[in-house]
Predict the 3D structure of the following.
Amino acid sequence: MLETPSTSKPEAEAKSKAKPGAYIECTGFELPKYHPVIITIDGPAGTGKSTVARQLAKRLGLDFLDTGAMYRAATAIMIDRKIDKEEVGELVSMVLGADLHFDWQHDPPMILAWDAPIDHRIRDDDVTLLVSWVAAIPELRHHMVRKQRVIGAQHPRLVTEGRDQGSIVFPDAAIKFYLDADPEVRAKRRIDQLGLADTMDLAQMCERIVKRDEIDSNRSDGPLVCPDDAIRVDTSKYDVQGVIDLLEQHTRERIADLISTE
Ligand code: DC
């Protein structure tokens, strides 16, 4: 279900002109160039969060953070360093030692562990199969949340996507979105995205996605939830460009509102 924008376009436009300053040109609304703004996008797997967040960041001239990449990197480390699933302490200290960080010169930013790229590894099937389990480890989540807040401080104009960005990591974010879609739609998108049409059927992918949702939503720490103040978007009936357009419109309206009340 879609929230109705709180401000009409002409109203928002008028408000956005209330403050002088350096502005980025945009379609009807203006975003102050040096104004800090954190936008969170949360939601389950297969809602197109990454693509949408990345494109939205581009359109608005903001940085983009893929927090799933951090949990995937931790999972790749666990598998590749042959750390036993039960050895949570060992895993956490290994991930701490790896000093996961992003190279922001890359588009999208590239994740590194021990100063070496690990992005080529993080979408492999073995990682995807285990990542929800790893992402449910509270000690690891605390570490990631801290890191993400540091990133937010260093990149205060940011679109960040994940499962807990609006609820836990950036509860005061200026704008929060929650993307959702029917499990079947999400499964179909994942199959297309990964080029698995010949090897995996829809039911199998659907089952995997529902299982992952279940783990992500039921963990004790930072479960997947729609924050009360988030704009909820059912992406089932839109293509990617449609979702980005919609989020961009909401964002520009919200920002116009925010800066006019500062
Ligand atoms: O968005 P993704 O598929 O790359 O996420 C991979 C896993 O990491 C997924 O199981 C959910 C988890 N995750 C999380 O728990 N918290 C986040 N902020 C981001 C991802």
User: Anything to note?
Assistant: Residues 240-260 form the longest helix (21 residues). The first strand starts at residue 23 and ends at 24. The beta strands are 23-24, 31-32, 37-42, 63-66, 101-103, 110-113, 116-117, 157-162, 175-180, 231-234. The chain has a mean pLDDT of 88.
